[in-house]
Amino acid sequence: MIPYTDVPLVSCRGLQFRWPGSDITLTMDDFTVAPGERMFLCGPSGSGKSTLLGLLSGVLHATRGDVTVLGVPFSTLSAERRDRFRAEHLGYVFQQFNLLPFLSPVENVLLGCAWSPTRAARAGATYPARRDEAIRLLDALGLMAQLVERSRTGNLSVGQQQRVAVARALIGGPGLLIADEPTSALDTNNRDVFLRLLLAECTRHGTGVVFVSHDMSLARHFDRAVSLGDCPPSQMVA
Ligand SMILES: Nc1ncnc2c1ncn2[C@@H]1O[C@H](COP(=O)(O)OP(=O)(O)OP(=O)(O)O)[C@@H](O)[C@H]1O
Fold first, then answer.
1. Which residues pair with 191 in a beta bridge?
2. How many Cβ atoms are within 10 Å of 87's Cβ, its own excluded?
3. What are phi and psi of 96, to 5 degrees?
4. What's the confidence (pLDDT) of residue 36?
5. What is the CATH number of domain 10-235?
6. What is the β-pairing status of strands 90-93 and 72-73?
7. Confidence check on the interface: ipTM exceeds 0.95, yes or no
8. Max intra-chain CA distance, the chain
9. Could you tell me if 170 and 197 are in contact, meaning their C-beta atoms sit under 8 angstroms apart?
């Protein structure tokens, strides 16, 4: 198991990516996320935030340079090992959640450790223990207890589904949580409360965070803010 405190979570040098057929190149000369760091990533629409998250999670491949996560350069992994590495070490909250609507919230959360023996073991030694951990996480993230086990996730509100998506990404304490605009559907008060809960759970697990949002008011919750494109630097200090 990789000790999450010993190596940078992410390190990219001379990274370039160009979508096929595009004449725009995303360039990151030096991009590092320290162990346990919480990074806020912003930038105007089209500046490449989602593309960068795709590179950090190994779904997209650099045109030049390499992405190293927890000391492992993605270029050294076969597609199968990259998938396994992602399941073991990364939690991802998608803009559209990608939950299974016909499963309960608890069943959705347990999917987060279904393909990772390490994360499953960290979540609990037995299935009932992992189920209890899924329930604890959902409760810690503010989902009402009566919704957790018997409701269909597809029937929950957008805000409730966000909590399920974050709990699924966090179960088993991955080294890095990558979140793509996960609070965009919440109002300002709920955003702050939810973010505090999310970050408290990350602290509990020693999980670092790369969090994308257009909402600059959220930057103050993070250790560091990084801009792709033209966010004013004065707004970038967390
Ligand atoms: N699948 C794709 N094929 C070709 N070009 C793409 C693809 N996805 C994104 N792009 C291009 O890459 C650039 C960056 O897009 P990306 O979605 O990463 O930006 P973003 O900062 O996440 O935008 P938003 O804030 O609107 O979600 C844009 O010019 C976009 O048109």
1. none
2. 19
3. -100, 15
4. 87
5. 3.40.50.300
6. unpaired
7. yes
8. 52
9. no
